Amino acid sequence: MKKKILASALIFMSAFIFAREAFFTGDDYCISAEYNDKAFPGDAVFVKMTFSQSTKKGKSSKLEFSNANAFLQFFAEGKLSRESTFFTVSKNTKSSRTFLAGIPLSTWWTEDTKCFLKIIYSTDGAKKMEFELPFTLEKKEFVSEVIDLDESNSNIKADSSLKRMEQIKKLNGILETANPSAVYQTTPFLLPTNATRRTAFFADRREYKYTNGKSTTGLHYGIDFGIPEGSEVSACAEGKVVLAETRVTTGWSVVIEHLPGLYSLYYHMSQLKVKEGDTVKAGQVIGFSGSTGLATGPHLHWEMRLNMEAVNPDFFTGDFAFSGKN
Ligand SMILES: [Zn+2]
């Protein structure tokens, strides 16, 4: 089955901020791709791609897209930096199918990093095809701060016990899992609390000072909301609870799977209202805030991970998967 992309023109700005559309027409199918062509370091890039049978020349093809394979690649400074597999969002009809893929953008890249995206695909085992899409990183400043840890928090941070190492291994095992059928929500996510006071931001550059005079550097992976102990914490989106337990550094913690490779994390709670295996709705109460684990006071730490990497949670409160245009 030979197919040729005849035109790769027609790239234009759509009505959505940052959303760009591209159309590709083959002999018996066409592709429309929608994606955010700009983002800040620490955000993500998502591409929604719909394959459909072409009605060109009145010809009807028997092409189906159930066996379509597609990959999204991100190139930075000319080098392949990250790759992600497209998953099916909806099988619209027998002759049309919508796919989505997302890639996390490093918070260490700057507006000077030259980038582009490449999409590689094949349908029904046909010859591999590929096309490129332009992409721009925007300028963002991050906060730098020094955190003085007391005796108890110094001990937690330095804890290398088997128990803590096993907890880290378990969490990483969850976060590296991208289950293609875990498609729970592609509409904008909610904030996990009514509180608006933020005491720490995504990707703050931190220096931790220990009571023994030593220090280490690290990145703050989430957003901290300063809320009193016992405040309601709710799921930012529909999903499946994949972790609900107490951990050495993060205290009472919940992890929810929302999309293949996309997870939300909630730390330092005083009490949980869900258990592993539960399915939750967006806005459902999953626990109450507290200061368990490594915490200098009551707060909620809310984090998002995409393909293992911490990404800016605020990015997901926008229409990141272009659901508004379906
Ligand atoms: Zn935090």
TrEMBL record:
Pfam families, per database record: Peptidase_M23 (PF01551)
Annotated ranges, domain M23ase beta-sheet core: 219-313
GO molecular-function terms, A-Z: metalloendopeptidase activity
Signal sequence extent: 1-19
Keywords: Signal
InterPro entries registered for this protein in UniProt: Cell_wall_metabolism_enzyme, Dup_hybrid_motif, M23ase_b-sheet_dom
The name this protein goes by in its record: Peptidase M23
